[in-house]
Amino acid sequence: MFERAAWPRVLPFAAYLTFIAIADLLDWLGVSAGQLRWLYPFKIAVVLALLLAFRRHYDELGPPFLNRGAAAKAVAAGIVVLLLWINLNADWMKVGTSAGFDPARDGKIDWLLVTVRLAGAALVVPVMEELFWRSYLMRWLESAHFQQVAPARLGWKPFVVTVVLFGFEHNLWLAGIVAGAVYSLLYMRSGSLWPPVLAHGVTNGLLGVWIISTGNWTYW
After folding, report:
1. Each residue of 140-167: b (16+ CB within 10 Å) or e?
2. Long-range CB pairs of 61-70, under 8 A, 24+ apart, other chains included
3. What residues does the CAAX prenyl protease 2/Lysostaphin resistance protein A-like domain cover (predicted)?
């Protein structure tokens, strides 16, 4: 079903989803949120370990890196997505409910957990998700030999399919669709995976700062 080159891009994402399923199952079985607090750091550690183990397979994350202009555009795109993310929150823009992640225990915030959560969301998740959604799935939908597909050659079908799926991966589905569209356009127009990785990291990092400063833990 997959080319050998697909697995380094699929397995970290699959591991991430597996931990989400495990957390949902444990919650259904009555395990308290307090007992599940350290599942996220373990999840991020596993995903990071897989990314590092497969790092030699990620040609799309090699040079050339971003120049100042491309980096500035990516940062601006990440900020725009953040502003839309925290405002596209009407009831009809949501699917299901999000328990979020409240790092407070006995009225005190566990700053170690907050730091791990923020670092994971800003540094690990963007790399893992962009490798799967943009570098792999978008190109695979264009051709089974996905590594031969240049981002600029991607058509509307892979764009629409991945954007919609990316959106419904999130509780805020409309915000997710908008984010997926922005990251995909950055990828297609730049021909590089670095702009969507940077934009995604900026969105997640600033969202984390906003969550911490406002206490809107459900966004995590």
Report:
1. bbbeeebeebebeebeeebbeebbeebb
2. 61/127, 61/131, 61/193, 61/194, 61/197, 64/192, 65/194, 66/192, 66/194, 66/195, 66/198, 70/190, 70/192, 70/194, 70/195
3. 115-205
Task: Decide: helix, strand or coil at residue 88.
Answer: coil
Structure token digits, residue 220: 């995590």
Report pTM: 0.94
What is the C-alpha to C-alpha distance for residues 126 and 130, in angstroms, rounded to an integer? 6
Distance from C-alpha of 192 to C-alpha of 190, rounded to nearest angstrom? 5
The number of residues in the chain equals: 220
Please give the C-alpha separations between residue 38 and each of 18, 34, 124, 154, in angstroms, as whole numbers.
15, 8, 17, 39
Q: Over the stretch 35-66, which tens digit does the pLDDT of each residue have?
A: 788 899 999 999 999 999 999 999 999 998 99
C-alpha distances out from residue 194 to 70, 201, 216, 217, Å: 9, 10, 29, 29
- Specify the DSSP element, H or E, that contains 42: helix 39-53
Beta-strand relationship, 104-105 and 108-109: antiparallel
Does residue 187 contact residue 199 with C-beta atoms inside 8 Å? no
| Identity of the amino acid at 117 | R
- Report pLDDT digits (tens) over 131-147: 999 999 999 999 999 99
CA terminus-to-terminus distance, the chain? 34
69, two tokens: 């202009």
